[in-house]
């Protein structure tokens, strides 16, 4: 690629948007993860507790697709949270191959305490946009995500 082609590509809106989104996402994830560590949780532990808090008991086999963890990571995270008393494993009464993760009262109390603080931190991270701009960004990012998903299926 010669210098002129590089200059043109560098100014390409698709490439520029990808770089800007990647940098913004990385910064926001870093800030959110840092906030989670204030409560003694890593991002996977926080995500799993939040899932159970908001959605109730979940089959261990389905947790990975909900919070993007591998099965080995799920076992590790569940073991950690169970050792801390924040979740428990519950065998399925209908299918002994299925085990559920369920948030405990102590886990619920923890999230009742920390989630409002975490939410406030997220609001601060996002204060660079107005409410209207946030709604517009949500719409645009959903549209972009759906479009990108079609390309994932093309590669399969």
UniProtKB/TrEMBL annotation:
Keywords, sorted A to Z: DNA-binding, Transcription, Transcription regulation
Record carries keyword Transcription: yes
Keyword Transcription recorded: yes
Occurrences of domain HTH marR-type (ranges): 14-146
InterPro entries from the UniProt entry: HTH_MarR-typ, MarR/SlyA-like, Tscrpt_reg_MarR-type_CS, WH-like_DNA-bd_sf, WH_DNA-bd_sf
Protein name: MarR family 2-MHQ and catechol resistance regulon transcriptional repressor
Organism: Alkalibacillus salilacus
